Amino acid sequence: MDDLKKDNQKLNPIVVTNEDVENNPPETYFKDSDQANLPENNTSQTNPEEVITTSSPHVPRKYGGPKIIATIFGVLFILGGLIAGVILVQRSQEIRKKAQLGPIPPPRTINAQCLGVRAYDTNWNLLTQEQLSNLRPGSRIYLAVSGTTNAGTFDKARFTINGVQRSEVTTRTPNSDIEFYDEFIIREPEDVASRVFTITGQIHHTELGWIY
């Protein structure tokens, strides 16, 4: 009988309610063999606290230093010396060229002037105003003009008589190298007005052209 009671006790189920489970949580038992198979560092089962690791922020490495700054200044100093040397060489070359060419003369100002017309007889005697008034048709005279200048030369002349321009002349009077003359023969006047002669002369400068 006693054995039967023991068997009945083994077969009777144990009723456990939810309240019993919440108030008395079941304990977990492990055999020695099962406990040996558990991982040693299982923090999810053995340590409910979360492990948080922090690392310091990455600080960029500073480049430079006294040596690098000194090197940069040295390079800049060398470049400045090279540039200054090139400029000095160019200036010295320009000075040498100017010295070889000599002093540059200032711009030249040319002044020239045409002098009045004069009349000569065939013997190169200068005629006065009274002698000119007594000339008769067929008389032969020489009309001459000259000029003055501070630079350059005169090379020819021309005359205008009563508004009619005559041909250019290059012949010079025997008394001067800068006086040009033209031979003129007095014709018979057609009327009284034609007996009055208006004569103008021009002389040519080699650089300035015709001078009045």
Task: Sketch the major β-sheet.
Answer: 4 strands, antiparallel
Percentage of residues in strands: 15-25%
CATH class of the domain at 112-211: Mainly Beta
> What is the total tally of β strands?
8
Shape from CA axes? rod-shaped
Query: Whole-number average pLDDT?
Result: 75
Structural class: alpha+beta
Q: Report how far the terminal alpha carbons are from each other.
A: 174 Å
Helix percentage? 25-40%
What does this protein look like?
This protein is of the alpha+beta class and 212 residues long. The protein has a domain at 112-211: Immunoglobulin-like (Sandwich), CATH 2.60.40. Helices cover 32% and strands 20% of the residues. The chain contains six helices and eight strands. The chain has helices at residues 2-11, 18-23, 32-37, 43-46, 66-101, 129-133; strands at residues 112-114, 118-120, 140-149, 154-161, 164-165, 179-185, 199-205, 209-211. Strands 1, 2, 3 and 6 form a four-stranded antiparallel sheet that branches. The radius of gyration is 66 Å and the shape is rod-shaped. The termini are far apart. Mean pLDDT is 75; it is low at 28-36 and 42-46.
